[in-house]
Specification:
With 116 residues, this protein is mainly alpha-helical. The protein has a single domain, classed as Substrate Binding Domain Of Dnak, Chain:A, Domain 2 (Up-down Bundle), CATH 1.20.1270.360. It contains four helices and no strands. The chain has helices at 4-32, 39-60, 66-87, 90-110. α1 runs antiparallel to α4 (90-110), α2 packs antiparallel against α3 (66-87) and α3 (66-87) runs antiparallel to α4 (90-110). The chain is elongated, with a radius of gyration of 14 Å. The relative contact order is 0.21.
């Protein structure tokens, strides 16, 4: 069973990741252009934004299906981190770090069969 602090931390990391990816995408990548604005990178960042919000919502409402949402979120966050690292630069490295922290937390939450 997930303890309340673990749940709270995972929800917070999902929102932090969502917000950072949104900020990076719209305030950095699309302005810089080039590789930052390539379709595949924009898609995975958009996927990460949506998936983090979805996982946070599932956990917030204590959904019985939170494990599936968190597992998917972990996978999407890892893919986003890889994309950000491939592009490189300070903004992308920071985004990748947050994505990896969120992925780790979501992976742990996905293994919790019951909510606290």
């Amino acid at each position: 069973m997930a303890n309340p602090e673990m749940l709270k931390s995972c929800i917070a990391l999902c929102w932090e990741c969502r917000n950072e990816c949104q900020h990076a995408l719209f305030d950095h990548c699309l302005k810089v252009g080039g590789r930052h604005a390539e379709a595949a990178h924009v898609r995975i960042m958009s996927d990460c934004i949506e998936m983090c919000q979805t996982a946070a919502d599932f956990m917030t409402r204590r959904s019985d299906l939170h494990g599936a949402a968190c597992a998917a979120c972990a996978e999407v966050c890892e893919a986003c981190a890889r994309s950000c690292e491939a592009i490189g630069g300070d903004g992308m490295t920071h985004c990748a770090d947050i994505c990896r922290r969120c992925a780790e937390s979501c992976r742990e939450m996905s293994r919790m069969p019951e909510m606290a």
